[in-house]
Design goal:
Helix 1 (14-26) packs parallel to helix 3, helix 4 runs antiparallel to helix 5 and helix 7 crosses helix 11 (203-216). The chain has 11 helices and 4 strands. By secondary structure, it is of the alpha+beta class. The protein has a 4-stranded mixed beta sheet, with helices on one face.
């Protein structure tokens, strides 16, 4: 039976990049539909995700799935002929979900504060940002990946932020490598995988996008 897979996405979205990596890891062919959120939301997006009205949305055989972490789990369960992203052990699987949830609740907002604040507020944002990443670095430890020996669910959840590091560093005058060397080494290791390298966005393009957002917010 032919599988119809459509991904509604917006190119700089770290949440969309997650889904792209998961699909690439599983070797799933799909139709990519760009949603330029700077110009507004399409009627189709509002139709398939009427609750949150956000990308990414995966439409599989006409059925939409929303929220990137849920989409990645769905991909892992449906295309299960390839190496799993989530561990088979229930405890390890719960731990992976815990850390992916930590990433979802902490990293995006902390990163955004780096390029939307100045002065003392930005200094506080830097402190919070590195506290989060040092916690993640501690969880990684000396393992090559969060998924132990292979790229897993937590890796897929976090690695999309790698292409945003340059914008964070430029806007907040920080160095990820100086503060979190193990995490940067992990990111470079992940980026050697074709599924990751072909899904990540050029860091300078991301920086240009951040400048555009800052202009829209009246910060530049």
């Amino acid at each position: 039976m032919a599988q119809e897979v459509i991904l509604l996405d917006f190119w700089p979205s770290m949440f969309g990049i997650r889904v792209r990596i998961a699909l690439a890891e599983k070797g799933v062919k799909y139709e990519y539909r760009e949603e330029d959120l700077l110009k507004g939301k399409s009627p189709y997006l509002l139709q398939v995700n009427p609750v949150h009205k956000k990308i990414p949305v995966l439409i599989h055989n006409g059925k939409p799935i929303s929220e990137s972490s849920i989409i990645v789990q769905y991909i892992d369960e449906v295309w299960n002929d390839k190496a799993p992203l989530l561990p088979s052990d229930p405890y390890e699987r719960a731990q992976a979900r815990f850390w992916a949830d930590y990433i979802d609740k902490k990293v995006y907002d902390a990163g955004r504060k780096l390029w939307t604040t100045t002065g003392e507020e930005q200094e506080a944002a830097k402190k919070d940002f590195f506290e989060i990443f040092k916690t993640l670095e501690g969880q990684l430890g000396d393992k090559p990946y969060f998924g132990e020996e292979n790229l897993g669910y937590v890796d897929v959840s976090l690695i999309p932020y790698y292409c945003w590091f340059y914008a964070y560093e430029t806007m907040a005058n920080i160095s990820m490598e100086a503060e979190c060397p193990k995490l940067v080494a992990w990111a470079k290791r992940c980026a050697q995988k074709k599924s990751v390298s072909e899904s990540l966005v050029d860091e300078k393009k991301i920086l240009g996008f951040v400048h555009e957002l800052r202009k829209r917010l009246g910060l530049e």
